[in-house]
Amino acid sequence: MRHNFPPLNALKVFEVAARHLSFSKAAEELFVTQGAVSKQIQTLEQYLEQPLFHREKGGLHLTDAGKLYLPTISEAMESIQSATALIKQSVADSNALLINTTPSFSTLWLIPKLEKIKEQFPDLTFQVTSTHSDNILSTESDLIIRCLPISSSQDPDSLLVEEELVAVISQERFKSSPVNTAADILNHPLILHTTRPQLWTSFLNHYIAEEYASPQFSDGYEHFFMSMEAVKRGQGIGLLPSFLAADLIDKGELVNLMQIKFMSGYGYYYSVPIHKRGNTKVVELAQCLKAMLTDS
């Protein structure tokens, strides 16, 4: 069944001209001449068999028919634009992977490595979020990365890397007060990781054999990227995952004290929501991340 539509291009011109109440401004927005705008309006008025504008010396005004017509046409144009944007976005989204991970993992490792990752996936774009959800496997994320206790209940194949912690200090603070033994660490404030406050106790018990004085704790931070910033600013010694601190250690901004490495009993695991497991690119990306983390 054929629908008796008015000329669609003329409708667009009418909406712009009515919004501006000016043919000249409509012409500027549409990148056409004023004469072209006038011609399209004339075509539409002939189709409707009534005028839409009053053309007066004081300016352009809508007729009663124009006032009645404009709201519906404006809404229709917005609907067309929205539908068009939705379709175009769906095409773009088919080549986009949504990664949900922790703030520190994304800030200190994933984003700096993203260009290298994209070399292996040139047709993909990535959207990175750190939104937490009670049921992450039902989210729209394609790949979820979390730091979890290493346990037999976790799928070993989903382990990207075990968390290996290093004790780091700023270069300036190290020069002013060197650390030559594990016990020397106690001469500095220790930056607390508030979500896992037991880390420092486990570390000190492991590396200082004799009984030691109560450590002096500095301010505490929830995320490793916060602790990293505190270490850089000379606030004390921090325990950070080695793969997150590696670049700054290599640059000489941070000092890895005595090259000590401490296995925290945690690991970075990935998971893929059930409804996303048919996407082979997600599994390939996870394996790429695992290889890069292993080499870090």
TrEMBL record:
GO terms for biological process: DNA-templated transcription. Keywords: DNA-binding, Transcription, Transcription regulation. Residues 6-63 form the HTH lysR-type domain. PROSITE patterns: HTH_LYSR. InterPro entries: LysR-type_TF_proteobact-type, LysR_HTH_N, LysR_subst-bd, WH-like_DNA-bd_sf, WH_DNA-bd_sf. This is Putative transcriptional regulator, LysR family protein. GO terms for molecular function: DNA-binding transcription factor activity; sequence-specific DNA binding. It comes from Neptuniibacter caesariensis. PANTHER family: GLYCINE CLEAVAGE SYSTEM TRANSCRIPTIONAL ACTIVATOR (PTHR30537:SF26), HTH-TYPE TRANSCRIPTIONAL REGULATOR (PTHR30537). Belongs to the LysR transcriptional regulatory family.
